[in-house]
Amino acid sequence: MRPVDDTAHSQDLLLFLASTAHDMKNSISVLSGTLEGLLVKAGPQADAAYPQMAQMLYQTRRLNDNLMQLLALYKRVGTPEYPFDVQAIEAGQLLDQVVALGRVLLDAKGIVLEVEADRDLIWHLDEDLIVGVVSHAVNNAMHYTRDRIRLSLREADGLLEIRVEDNGAGYPQPLLAAGAAGLHGAASGIDFRTNSAGLGLYFSREVARMHRHRGREGGVRLENGGAFGGGCFILSLP
User: Fold this and answer.
1) pTM here?
2) Radius of gyration for the chain, computed over Cα atoms and rounded to the nearest angstrom
């Protein structure tokens, strides 16, 4: 009998899982698109099921975020099938994608999204991953804001800084008090906005760290305050 190549077997399994996650993500994207179309046609005044459809869209977005996060970890391995792909991207193009992904759900929930950025700024990054991270932060803010979210992008101290701020109650003090320790992964047991799994923040941090330039690497931090006095998610990329 030939010995089993555990390394090759593990790589095959990882590729299978990544391919499955990608296929599921495509299916959920189709479902999200269908729900968006129904919401646009229905309108809050014309269809009693409008709030339920909006909630369904929010949940499908959460599933899509989770699958994107799994693929982000696979990209971190740097395989040919799912490479870490850094390209020069215009800030305006990046923000337009995030706004387009969230527009229907924002309108359905009656949430105002303010966007402030130097649209001509160009940065090197993995577009799919960063759009996924920022969209996840916006979706998360939708759940906790009262009625307003601010998305901003600027260059600060040689870093690209993307902020998602809301006018909700802010992040819980135990999470903020944990400081950097709260960003060391899902094993800490700290969630993005609650004290549960912590996967959203973990994946966002891992994607940020994948971006490196001249000895600097990306990072994620949480604050309370900002423009609206609520929670602030800040992504920095070198």
Assistant:
1) 0.79
2) 19
Specify whether the CB–CB gap between 122 and 129 falls below 8 A: no
Question: Kindly report the CA angle at 110 between 104 and 115, in degrees rounded to 5?
Answer: 70
β partners of residue 225: 230
**Cα separation of 41 and 189, whole Å?**
41
Burial of 180: CB neighbours in 10 Å, binned 0-12, 13-18, 19+: exposed
What domains sit in the chain, N to C, each tagged with a CATH number?
Answer: 6-237 (3.30.565.10)
Strands 148-156, 112-117: pairing is parallel
Residue 179: both structure tokens together: 């400081």
Q: What is d(CA 177, CA 222) in angstroms, rounded to the nearest whole number?
A: 10
Q: Which of 200, 222, 193, 187 is nearest to 62 (CA)?
A: 200
State the Cα–Cα distance between residues 20 and 12, nearest whole angstrom: 12
Q: Which residues pair with 79 in a beta bridge?
A: none
- Give pLDDT < 70 ranges for the chain: 1-16, 43-47, 75-82, 175, 177-199
CB burial of residue 52 (10 Å; 0-12, 13-18, 19+):
exposed
**CA separation for the pair 69, 59 (Å, rounded):** 15
> What distance in Å separates the CA atoms of residue 98 and residue 136, rounded to the nearest whole number?
9
Q: What is the pLDDT of residues 80-95, one digit of tens each?
A: 666 788 999 998 899 9
